[in-house]
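Customer escalation, tier 2.

The customer says the design service returned an amino acid string that "doesn't look like it belongs to this structure." They asked us to rerun it and document both sides in this ticket. The original structure tokens are below, unchanged.
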């Protein structure tokens, strides 16, 4: 594994077919699709991989059932197909999730309209997943405690869920295994023009410090802007007309024992009729999401507001009134900003979710879209980039992920499942050096102590929040961001990270501030 300085030297020393800006799922997908075609490809991210939207999503890999109502049949079909593809190729990471929708008299959509939509949904999946209707008695067996007003039954259907940040890391790892380069904490400063078209970027390694930061000129036949909600920033250098409408989606994290849902609950919010979900994930229950115009500075980490907390708690109270879930039950919150194309509609929830690709002076911008369809989005971007690169573009239908390698049969099945989900074909290679003493889980979670060691040694951790909010998810799974286990985390990770005591203490102060400001409950 190359050191960071060696990676920087490689970034500067080579001329790239494509230089990708943005380390979320869109950029990772472009890097993967480029390397599988033999293109020389590098990716830079000004923060951490998956720092933005791709670690703050609803964790769902879904077909977009609600898009059927808006007539977006093509988007739904592609999403269903990509969802099933991901479930086939990475079944430990992208797992089937049953959803239940309570049917209540007088509340829209009604049973027959919903079932009609699900028949289309099931047909798109070629009958692989079946929806069903259940009476009141069966509904209460499937979802104990559910009691919205005028409950008459429920509908169940299948979608999928994932760990969004780990999905990004898996895709990046596949690309790196085929020669791609991915660097976090490297920012795009300005385009380099060659005969009135973009021929590369001036970039800055932000970890060298503000006063010593050195600008590097990186040559590339094509620059691909995959920065999502931040896409207009880079486009501004080309006088591109702003097109992004940043929408904030916020979530609550509640202990599973307080909101025990055996399957995901799909809810129509009683106030505004928007869809909200409660779903089991990593040993907690997540409640989300909101859908609001985000007017804050995009360079500052998004966070939930008091009104959003109240809105989401109202949805819980509507479905599970007897549980009396209160703000004191919330372990953590998180908020992300979605890159939605501004189509002029007043209602944020009505804005289209399809993606856009465009070529401006040789820089290709990819933005909008959904996590589920990242592979198709990446292919569209490379199709537009191909003439600049001087290579033919062809659809590659082979696997995104290398086949998993069998792990030690003496290891617990749950451990093997988790390692395969996170590291795929490299699970055994990564795990064996640390396995003997680290199969235990961090108390209150399903996270293995082993995962912390692997991340510290192999996954480009630069800051403590990289380790606890994205390589692992302890920061949102545990009260106080997992700080109660800081000593144990330090014992494992500090030697592997080669941090001095002063460096660790600085990182702990930084992380504590991030958790309090952006992942707690607003006071």
């Amino acid at each position: 594994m190359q050191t960071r300085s060696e990676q920087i030297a490689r970034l500067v020393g080579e001329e790239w077919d494509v230089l990708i800006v943005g380390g979320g799922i869109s950029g990772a997908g472009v890097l993967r699709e480029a390397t599988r075609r033999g293109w020389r490809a590098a990716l830079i991210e000004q923060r951490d991989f998956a720092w933005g939207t791709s670690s703050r999503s609803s964790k769902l890999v879904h077909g977009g059932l609600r898009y059927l109502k808006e007539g977006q049949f093509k988007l739904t079909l592609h999403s269903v197909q990509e969802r099933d593809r991901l479930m086939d190729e990475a079944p430990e990471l992208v797992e089937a999730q049953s959803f239940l929708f309570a049917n209540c008299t007088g509340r829209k959509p009604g049973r027959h309209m919903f079932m009609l939509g699900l028949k289309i949904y099931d047909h798109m999946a070629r009958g692989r997943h079946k929806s069903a209707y259940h009476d009141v008695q069966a509904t209460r067996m499937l979802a104990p405690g559910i009691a919205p007003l005028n409950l008459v039954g429920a509908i169940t259907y299948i979608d999928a869920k994932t760990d969004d940040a780990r999905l990004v890391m898996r895709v990046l790892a596949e690309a790196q295994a085929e020669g791609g380069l991915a660097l976090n904490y490297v920012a795009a400063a300005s385009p380099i023009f060659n005969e009135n078209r973009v021929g590369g970027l001036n970039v800055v390694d932000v970890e060298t410090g503000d006063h010593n930061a050195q600008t590097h000129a990186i040559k590339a036949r094509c620059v691909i802007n995959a920065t999502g909600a931040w896409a207009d920033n880079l486009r501004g250098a080309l006088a591109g007309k702003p097109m992004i409408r940043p929408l904030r989606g916020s979530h609550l994290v509640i202990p599973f024992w307080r909101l025990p849902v055996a399957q995901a609950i799909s809810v129509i919010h009683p106030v505004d009729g928007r869809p909200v979900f409660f779903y089991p994930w990593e040993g907690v229950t997540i409640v989300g999401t909101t859908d609001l115009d985000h007017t804050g500075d995009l360079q500052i980490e998004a966070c939930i507001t008091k009104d959003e907390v109240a809105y989401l708690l109202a949805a819980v109270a509507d479905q599970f009134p007897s549980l009396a879930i209160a703000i004191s039950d919330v372990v953590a919150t998180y908020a992300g900003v979605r890159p939605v194309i501004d189509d002029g509609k007043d209602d944020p929830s009505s804005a289209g979710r399809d993606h856009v690709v465009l070529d401006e002076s040789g820089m290709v911008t990819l933005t909008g879209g959904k996590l589920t369809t990242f592979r198709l989005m990446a292919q569209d971007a490379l199709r537009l980039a191909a003439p600049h690169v001087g290579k033919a573009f062809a659809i590659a239908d082979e696997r995104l992920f290398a086949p998993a390698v069998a792990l030690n049969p003496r290891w617990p099945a749950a451990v093997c499942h988790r390692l395969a989900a996170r590291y795929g074909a490299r699970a055994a290679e990564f795990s064996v050096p640390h396995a003997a003493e680290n199969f235990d889980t961090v108390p209150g979670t399903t996270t293995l102590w082993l995962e912390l060691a692997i991340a510290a040694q192999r996954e480009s951790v630069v800051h403590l929040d990289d380790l606890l909010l994205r390589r692992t998810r302890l920061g949102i799974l545990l009260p106080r961001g997992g700080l109660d286990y800081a000593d144990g985390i330090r014992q494992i990770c500090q030697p592997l990270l080669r941090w001095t005591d002063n460096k660790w203490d600085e990182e702990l102060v930084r992380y504590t501030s991030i958790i309090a400001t952006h992942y707690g409950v607003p006071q």
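Tier 2 assessment: The sequence is consistent with the input. The domain at 4-54+165-243+352-389 is CATH 3.50.50.60 (FAD/NAD(P)-binding domain). The chain has three domains: 4-54+165-243+352-389, 95-161+245-345, 413-518. Sent an explanation to the customer and offered a walkthrough call.
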